[in-house]
What does this fold into?
Amino acid sequence: MARKATAERSGRGNQALEFVVIIAVALGLALLIQAFLVKPFRIPSESMEPTLDIGQRVLVDRVTNHFGDPHRGDIVVFKPPAGADNNTCGAPTEPDDGHPCQKETPQKSSSNFIKRVVAVPGDRLKVLNNRVYIDGKLQKEPFINKNTPCSQPLCNLPREITVPPGHFFMMGDNRGQSADSREWGPVPKKWIIGHAFFTYWPPDRLGTL
It folds into this structure.
């Protein structure tokens, strides 16, 4: 009987150890997936309405960015320039002189932002009445919030800039309520975390982006 009790205790101990190992492996895999493959992200502000609401959650692809550049229209998560923390452009006179900010501050912020890519390297960009013009041509932007009034200087920046090599110009879909590249400049590719491709919460918004 003693041997049987000892064997039972040993079996229960092995089961407990196995359970702990399984949990540890699962947590490790989850952390690895978040670090290198797919990361969940919670929408922190109204700047991407109506596409994404405050509190909505998306999945971010961290792999594709290593093999190619973002395209116009992509929604991306990134580290903005440190100037985004206090609405500062790396070129001190912009955007007050009518240019969108064309030079970011040298350091990046510790915050994560989510915006839409509206211009890529080499594009000549200006903003009129909250709408983006690339190389003088008005862009088709069915995703923007057309009900937001144009009541701030960033709505009209008629003097063109050229997006520098290796940089991407970001703007929120809710143009009248978005602090974005117009104010603090384009974002270097190396500061882009990944492409938001799927929304999973709330359930009624489930789907691809």
